[in-house]
Amino acid sequence: MTCVSEQHLTQQLPAVPFYCPVPPARHRAGEVLNDRTVRWMRSRRLDEDERQLKRLAVCDFGGLAAATMPYGQLGPLALMAKLHAVLFSLDDAVCDESGATADRLAQETSRIMRALEAPDTGSAGDSPHTAALRLLRLELEEYASAQQLRRFTEAMRVYTSGLVWEASWRSDTRLPSLDDYVTLWMRAIGMAPSTAMIEIVGGFSVPDEDLQDARVRALTEITWTLVSWDNDLYSRNKELERVGDDLNLIDVVCQEQGCDPQRALVRVVAMRDRMMVLFDRLAAQVAEEADEGLRRYVRGLAQFVRGHLDWASLCPRYAVVSGPRTPTGGWWKQQPADNSPEPLPIPTIAWWWDQLAPAH
Q1: SS (H, E, C) 96-140
Q2: How would you label 50-75 residue by residue, b for 16+ Cβ within 10 Å and e otherwise?
């Protein structure tokens, strides 16, 4: 993957402020959740490398759960923090930094999915990640309905299929098209199981027909994509410094539009802000006619976008010694770089804008 191959290790891009009109919030149990999660993660031996375990231990998974789901009930919120720990460990140990192949990921993710489909009987061949996810799936039965368990399992299938697709590109000398990358990354970022947990953690239920409404599906996918793009914006310097990885939205835009990373950064920020504006407008329209359960779900989506950024602004995982840590002028900005109501020219997501009701 070579969009900026000669220069990317010496040219760190500046940090950028984020536009997010969602107010911050945080569950008061964040520190307690994190302490419990770190102890649990170590007891499960999710990684045999002590340096990697220490790196994971400072990620503040309890803080991530507390910021993204401040409305949560303590029991399922603790499971959410543990799920974050497993998925981050899986990402580092089996995906991003291990030279994983699509073949290897297909085997590992198939075992994971079987453990989630039939969690009652363990296997001697379970990896630490598969065993941990099997245990979490069993614990989830205390808080989730059969319908919610089905949704969670299907959401994990979306996520694991994205991991395999991601691994296939990591072994390629090219970068994917922008259209493919957007679809790939909204799946591989792990947001599908996270949004499936919103109603479980919140202690409410949304009917299938509401979640399948095109407007709600659009809001859900926008949430996945905002989180994945935000991650690309603040983590690119870390990925380049640690593993020379340029499978990133900025570098994909470099390739697609024939521009340098600085220009691509400007364009990506504008794309991201236009999508944030769309989310805000569409969420308001859906909330006008939604019942209480669906309104809580939509608020949960918005809070995840905001809480993820609040967590990332402080997380040591993304600090790079040689790169900028804080955007000039602060982490936040008051106005979007682009508030156009027109769809982004990305076919796989252009339909989101079609869900907006005409302005009066």
Answers
A1: HCCCCCHHHHHHHHHHHHHHHHCCCCCCCCCCHHHHHHHHHHHHH
A2: eeebebbbebbbbbbbbbbbbbbeee
Tell me the one-letter amino acid at 196.
A
Q: What is the pLDDT of residues 52-72, one digit of tens each?
A: 888 899 999 999 999 999 999
pLDDT of residue 318: 78
DSSP string, 40-101: HHHHHT--S-HHHHHHHHTS-HHHHHHHH-TT--HHHHHHHHHHHHHHHHHIIIIIITTT--
Half-sphere exposure in the Cβ direction for 242 (13 Å, CA): 16
**pLDDT tens-digit profile of 44-54?**
988 877 888 88
Spatial separation of the C-alpha atoms in residues 82 and 59, rounded to whole Å: 12
CA distance 148 to 198: 10
Work out the number of other CB atoms within 10 angstroms of the CB of residue 346.
18
Measured at the CA of 350, the angle between CA 301 and CA 20, to 5 degrees, comes to 35
Q: How confident is the model at residue 121 (pLDDT cuts 50, 70, 90)?
A: confident
Place of tokens 């202690």: 203
Report, in this order, helix, strand and coil percent for the chain, each rounded to 5: 65, 0, 35
> In terms of Cα–Cα distance, which of 250, 100, 74, 233 is closest to 164?
100
The closest of 249, 243, 238, 197 to 324, measured between CA atoms, is 238
